[in-house]
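From: lab user (bench 3)
To: helpdesk
Subject: output format question, protein + adenosine-5'-diphosphate

Hello, I'm new to running complex predictions and I'm not sure whether the block I got back is the full result or only part of it. Here's what I submitted:
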Amino acid sequence: MPRIMLLGAPGSGKGTQAARFASDYDVPVIATGDILRKNIKENTPLGRKAQGYIEKGDLVPDDLVIAFVDSAFDEADARGGWLLDGFPRTTAQAEALDALLGKTGKKLDRVFLINVPKDELISRITGRLLCPVCGKIYHEKSMPPRKAGVCDLDDAVLIRRVDDNAETAKSRIAVYDEQTKPLIEYYAAKGILTEIDGTIGLEKIEEVIRETLG
Ligand code: ADP
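Helpdesk reply: Thanks, we reran it on our side. This is the complete output you should expect:
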């Protein structure tokens, strides 16, 4: 089973694609944003530390994130493959990931960079709706639920993420440009980067991923 990572700006569709990939390939998704939001909801010590950063659109400090990814790997890796969504997001995190994998002789097979123009990112983010129960992602215009405001799968009332407003979205995109974009070069240099146009549609993106992985 493959070990892959999705790289892309906030709103580029990583979460939506991750869910589809996980069911196609039967691999667990390790999504650091989801793990952090769960910890905030459950008011854990990690959640209390992370909340302020997330609400401002800043990154949570590397040491906190690296520590919980390490333990998420212990569970997910038992199945032989996984998909990382939203991690690594800084060069320090990428180096920590290499070190973590190196300990057990494993490596990342491929990184998919999903490219979406900046103005489209903002409209995707500000229209995003999320099921608080199953995590399914919708968009009020481009991917609406069958019944307005309600999840197709479990009838829960859909919510908006606190950081999905225009102002916070702009800072998240700026943080991506500054801190995460250097990873494009990092993985290109390792020869494991595949770039995908994020506007070609979910099915087509899935096809590119499948063809690339062979
Ligand atoms: P998006 O890709 O739309 O920004 P995520 O759910 O991946 O959504 O992330 C939401 C927020 O969670 C980020 O803005 C950041 O504050 C925090 N976060 C998620 N992953 C990381 C990470 N790897 N390092 C630091 N902070 C993170």
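A quick orientation on your result: The radius of gyration is 16 Å. Let us know if anything else is unclear.
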